[in-house]
Amino acid sequence: MDNPILQVRDLCKVYGSSGNQVIALDHVSLTVNRGEFVSIVGPSGSGKSTLLHILGGVDKPTSGSVQVDGVELSALDESRLAVFRRRQIGLIYQFYNLIPVLTVQENLTLPLLLDHRKAGKGQVKAMAEELGLSDRLNALPGELSGGQQQRVSIGRALLTRPALVLADEPTGNLDTKNSAAIVELLKTFHKKYAQTLILITHDPDIARQARRLVRIEDGRIVKDEVIRP
Amino acid sequence: MSILQKLTLAEIRRHKSRFVVTVIGVLLSTALVAAVLLGIDSVMASMRRTVVAHWGDYDWQASETGSTSPTATLDALDASGLLSQLGYACDLTGPVSSDYGRVDLIGAGGDAWELLGAVAAEGTLPAAEGEVAVYADFARKNALSPGDTLTLPGPEGESRSYTVTAVLEQFHLDNTFVAPAEDPFALIVTPLSDPPEGAAVYYWGKAVSTDTKTLQALLDLDEQLSTGVSGFSGWLNSSLLAWSGVQSPGGGDNLLLLVGTLRMFLLLLIAAAAVLMIYNAFSISLAERRRTLGMLASAGATPEQRSACIFYEALAAGILGIPLGLAAACAGLALTFALTAPLIRQVSGKLIADFSLTLTVRPVWLLLSAAAAVGVLLISAWVPALHAGKTGPIDAIRGAGEVRLSRRALKGGRLFGRVLGPEYVLARKNARRSVHRYRATLLSLTMSVVLMVTASGFAGYLETAYSMGHRDSDYNITARLDSYDLTADITADPGFAVLSAPENARAVRVRETVQWGASRLPADRFSEQQQALTAQADAANAAFGLAPAVGADGTLAMSPYLIVLSDEEYAALAGAEAASDGQTLDCLLINRYLYTGSEGGYTDVQGQTSYQPGDTVDWDFNTMPVTLNIRAVLDGEDVPEELVRTTSSATTITFVTGRSAADAVFARFTAETGGYCRRNFTFSYQAEDREALMDELEPLTFGTNYYAVTDQTAELANISSAVALVRVALYGFTALIALVCAANIANTVSSGMALRRRESAVLRSVGMTPKSLRRMIFWESGIYGLKALCWGLPVSGVLLWFVYRKLTNLYVFPFFFPLGAAVIAAAAMLALSLASAWPALARAGRTAPAADLQRED
Fold first, then answer.
1. Mean pLDDT, rounded, of chain B
2. Per-residue pLDDT for B77 more than 80?
3. Nearest by CB to A114, which of B766, B851, B854?
4. B855: contact with A, CB 8 A cutoff
5. Interchain pair A114, B422: CB under 8 A
6. How much is the pTM?
7. How far is B766 from chain A, CA to nearest CA, in Å?
8. Lowest mean pLDDT among A26-30, B102-106, B319-323
9. Of B401, B430, B451, the domain-final residue
10. Distance, in angstroms, between A229 CA and closest chain B CA?
11. CA distance linking residue B792 with residue B798, whole number of Å
C-alpha cells in the first residue's frame, strides 16, 4: 500500500540569469514511500545534490512542489522551515560537516539542543554504541578519523528519528573499508527503525543495495526502477 | 611581480573588508604613535620658542664680576673652540640721571645682539662706536627715532653724543641689567668691541654641539676659569637645553626623564594594542589562506616562500596604512591644537606669558613613527608568518590547528548555556576556538575599558582634588600673611587695616592659626586609633632622629593647633563668647581631623580624645605657659567642614577660640617678652569686582613678611581648563585606542563568521533558525564585550585605587569609582559588540545554506 513520505512535483531549479542559465533540475517528479531506501545515481553535475538540498529544505526550487510528510516546504517561512528540518529531516554529507568546536556528544544532539530539548542519556548512549563511538563522546571532531566523523554525522541525522534521511555521497570521502561500514550502518538503521533513506552515490555497488534506484541525467530522471523486492 | 605577490594581492582582493580593517588598524596605530611623538615634540618646541622669546637663544652663560682682564677671558673662551657664538655685555655707566630721565648705558659685543634676540622695530642695529639702540618704550616717551642724537653722561662722567640707529622691539639684556627697583631706569645699548677692565661682564654662548661631551667640556671650562679668573661663574642654560631635548650633564632636571617615561609608556601602550589587533588580522588571514598555503606547499613552495605571503600582505597594509596614519596624526594634532588653543591660553596664561602650542613636524619624528609602525607590523606578522611556513598540504586539508579549544573552554559555560541556550554555547566555543585570537581580542578590549574608566576616574579625581582644595567657594579672593619679622606688630601695619577691611570687598573673613610648642598629655585621654597613629609617626620620625611623641611616662607630646575665629563665629559654635585673662584661654576642642600618612590615602580620625567641656590643657604658647579651658567639644558630623583639618602630622589637637580672647594672650606675650609672636593670617573676601579688589590688595607690601594674594575664582577657572585639557588628551587617546580595539573585534567576529560559512550552513541545515543564528553571532561578539567588562572594571578599580591613594596624599576626598564612565564603558562595549557583529548579522540567513555547504573551503 502506498504511504508517501515525500512527494515531488514538477521540480525545476535554474541557476544564473538569462543568457547564462544552467538548468540543474528540469521538471523532476518523484514519490518516495515511508520506510523506503532509494539510491539516486547520475554523473557529476547531473543535479543529484541540488535535488537532495531542495528535498532537505536547504535550497529553494525555482518552481515546483516538495511535500515531506504532507507538508509543503515552499509554504514554510525560514524559521518554520528550520524547525521542520531539525524535527523531520536528517542530512548526511560527504564532508561530514560537523561543528568543530562541539564535542561528539554535542554534535550528535545538536538538532535536539537547537529545539531546546534534552536527549535522554540512554538514547545518546545507545546511539553512540551503535555508532561505535562510546569512548569518543567528549572528543572534538578534529580528533576523529574520517570514518568516525561520518558516523557522528549519521548519528546526528538519525537521533531525532526524522521522517526522511538524506545522504549526499556519504562514502565519497572514505576508503573502501570505511565506506562499507558506513553503508552497513545506514542499512542497519534503515531496517531497525524503518527509516526512509535517500542516498546519493557514485558507487554502483552501494547504489544496488537500495530497494529502488533513480538515475538522473541533465537534471531529469531518466530511470526509476525497483531493484529489490 | 612574483607569483606569490600576485597570489597575495588576489587574496587581499578576495577578502577586501578584512584587509581594509587591517589597514585601518595600521593607520590608527601609526597615527597614535605619530601623535604621541609629534605631540610631545610640539609641546617641547613650543616651550623652547617661549623660553627663547623671553630669554634669548643660548646654551651657556657666565658672569664675571670685576675682572682685570676680561679680554683674556674672551680669548680663553674663543680658544676653547666649544662655542660657535659668543656674546658679552657690560654695564658702562650704571643707572645715571640724564635729560631723558634715569638711563643706563650698556655695551653689547660679539654675538650678544643675536643670542639675546635683538630685534629692531625701526632702523638698523648699531654697529659702530657712538651709535646706540633704545627700547621702544623709551623712544616713545622721549619721541626718539633713528637718526636722532642723544646726549648722555659717558662712562667717565663726561657728556657724550650718541646717534640713535635703532628702536628696539626686544633685546633680552633687560633680564640681566634691569632689576625691580623703586627708581626705574631705561637701558640704552651701544656696540662694544672689548669690555673695559674691572667691569662686571656677562657672557652668553651657543655650544658648537649639544652632545654630552661638549657640554661637559663647557662645564669643565667654567670650573677652570672660575679658579683662574676672579669672580667668574658659568653655567648651562639647562632649561632651554631641556626643552630642546638635551640633558645637561650633572643636571638634576627631571623634565627629560618625565617626558621620556611618558613617551615610552604611551608608545608601549599603543604598540600593545596595535600588535594585538594586527596580529589577529594576520592570524585570520592565515586561517583564510590555509588551503591555498597547503596547495602551495604541495606544489613545492618552501616554508620561507609561504611565510613571505603573510609578509607581503603586511607590506601592502603598511604601504597604505603608514602614510595615511602619519597624515592623520598631523591633521588631528593641528585640529586639536587649534580647538584647544583658548583652553591652553587660559591654563598657561599666568605661568608662561605668550605661550601658544603649535604643531611642529620634524622629519625625524615622522621617520621614527613610521619605523615604530613597521616594527609593530613585523612583530604582528611574525608568528602568523611562521605558522604559514609550517602549514603543509595535509594540515590544510584536515584543517589542523583551526580549532584549539582548551579543556576549560570545552567544558565550561554549562550553567550559562542552560539559561541562554545552545546559541550561547556555540558562540562561547566559537569565540574561544582559537585561544590566541580570543585572548588577543579580549586583551585589547579590556585595555580599552581600563583606559576609558581609569582616564575618566583620574580626570574626576583631579577635579575633585582641586575643588576640595578650593572648597571655600563662597569667597573668591584670598590673601595670606605670615609674619616673620618679630620686631614689629604685624597687626599695626597700615596694610593690615586694608587687608582687614578693603574697600572693594563685600564680605571679609579672617582666620588666624597658631601652632607653637607641644604639651605632654596623658596618653589615656586619646583614642586607641590616635595612639596607634602617633606610634606609627614615631617609627617614621625615628629615621630622621626626631624625638618620639610617645613618652615612657604614659604621655603623648601633642601640639595644640589653634584656629582663631571672630568672636561672633566662635560664640555661634561654642554657645558662649571666649574669655581670656592672658593666662587662660577659653576654647572649643575639635575632636576630629583627616590624617594623611606617608603611605597615601587618608584616615578620618574621629573621637580623637576623651576630653570633655570643663577639662583643661596646659600649653607651652611660644615658651609662655597658657592654660586652655575646654568649653565645648565638637566631633564627627558636628564639625563644620572648614574646621576639619587635613594634616600629615599625627601629633596635633585642634582648638578654636575667639579673636578677643586670643588677642589677650598675644598682648600678654608682648608685655612679658617685649617681642611679637609669629602670626599666620588668611583673609577671605567676597567681591563684586574681583579685578578692583586685586588691584587694591596686590600692591600692599609687608617688608620681609610673607604676603600673597590669590584670585580663587580665576584659579578655579584655570584648573577647570587644565582638567578639560587633560580630559581632551586622555579621552582622545583612549578613543583612538578603543577604535583600534573596535577594528580588532570587528575583524575577528566578521572574518570568523566568513571563515565559518560552511559551519553556519550546517547549523541551518540541522534546523537552526535565522533568529537563532543571529543570536549566536550576537553572543559571539557580546562575549568579548562582557568579558572585557568583567576584567576591565575590576582592573580599573585597582588602578584607580592606587591613583587615588597617591592623590589623597595631597588632597583629601573620599574614594569614588567613576560609575558614569563604567556605564559608558558598558554601553560602548554593547555598541561595539553590535557594531562589530553587524556585517555578520546582516549576512546571516540571507542566502540558502546549500551554496555554502558546497563550498570547498
1. 83
2. yes
3. B766
4. no
5. yes
6. 0.66
7. 5
8. B102-106
9. B401
10. 32
11. 10
Is A110–B422 a contact, with Cβ atoms under 8 angstroms apart? yes
The amino acid sitting at B388 is A
Please tell me what DSSP assigns to residue B689. S
CA-based R_g, chain B, Å: 37
Do B639 and B655 have their domain in common?
yes
Q: B602 or B797: whose pLDDT is higher?
A: B797
Choice among A3-12, B48-57, B494-503 with the minimum mean pLDDT: B48-57
Mutate which of B425, B432, B435, B762 to test chain A, going by most A C-beta atoms within 10 A? B762
Q: Which carries the bigger pLDDT value, residue B405 or residue A189?
A: A189
Q: Nearest CA of chain B to the CA of A107: how many Å?
A: 10
- The answer to whether residue B287 neighbours chain A at the CB level (below 8 Å) is no
Q: CB-based contacts of B390: which residues, under 8 Å, 6+ apart?
A: B303
Domain total in chain B: 4
Closest Cα of chain A to B846: distance in Å? 10
pLDDT at site B1: 67
Do B399 and A116 make contact, defined as CB atoms within 8 angstroms? no
Q: Which B residues, 786 through 845, put their C-beta within 8 Å of a C-beta on chain A? A: 845
Same domain for B816 and B766, yes or no, is: yes
Q: Are residues B467 and B594 in the same domain?
A: no
Question: Could you tell me the residue range of the domain that residue B381 belongs to?
Answer: 1-57+257-401
ipTM over 0.85: no
Q: Are residues B648 and B628 in the same domain?
A: yes
B468's grid cell:
576640595
Matching residue, cell 589615656 = B524
Q: Which helix H or strand E contains B254, and what residues bound it?
A: none
Q: Are residues B549 and B656 in the same domain?
A: yes
What tens digit of pLDDT does each residue of B605-630 get? 899 999 999 999 888 887 888 999 99
Digit-coded pLDDT (tens) for B635-648? 888 888 888 888 88
Whether B536 and B651 share a structural domain: yes
* Integer CA distances (angstroms), B459 to A149, B339, B466, in order: 57, 19, 11
Residue B856 reports pLDDT greater than 50: no
CB A96 within 8 A of CB A149: yes
Long-range pairs of B293-298 with CB within 8 A, sequence gap ≥ 24: B293/B388, B293/B391, B293/B396, B294/B391, B294/B392, B294/B393, B294/B394, B294/B395, B294/B396, B294/B397, B295/B393, B295/B396, B296/B4, B296/B7, B297/B391, B297/B392, B297/B393, B297/B396, B298/B393
Give me the residues paired with residue B509 across strands. Answer: B684
B499 and B579 in a single domain? The answer is: yes
pLDDT digit string, tens, across residues B128-143: 888 999 998 888 988 8
Question: Per-residue pLDDT tens for A98-119?
Answer: 887 788 988 888 888 888 787 7
Which cell is B257 given? 626623564
Q: In what order do the strands lie in the sheet with B603-605?
A: B603-605, B593-595, B645-647
Domain-terminating residue out of B234, B255, B276? B255
Instruction: Tell me the C-alpha to C-alpha distance, in Å, between residue B540 and each of A200, B543, B547, B603, B649.
Output: 87, 6, 11, 17, 11
The Cα-based distances of A67 to A75, A150, B623 in angstroms read 10, 28, 110
Q: Do A91 and B400 touch (CB under 8 A)?
A: no
CB atoms closer than 10 angstroms to residue A154: 24
> Are B490 and B624 in a shared domain?
yes
Give the H/E segment covering residue B412.
Answer: none
B850 reaches A (C-beta below 8 A): yes
Output phi, psi for B647, to 5 deg. Answer: -145, 150
Interface of B with A in 711-770 (CB under 8 A): 758-759, 761-770
Q: Do B768 and A114 touch (CB under 8 A)?
A: yes
At B133 the pLDDT is 92
Q: Which domains does chain A have, with CATH numbers?
A: 35-60+76-226 (3.40.50.300)
Q: Are residues B732 and B264 in contact, defined by beta-carbon separation less than 8 angstroms?
A: no
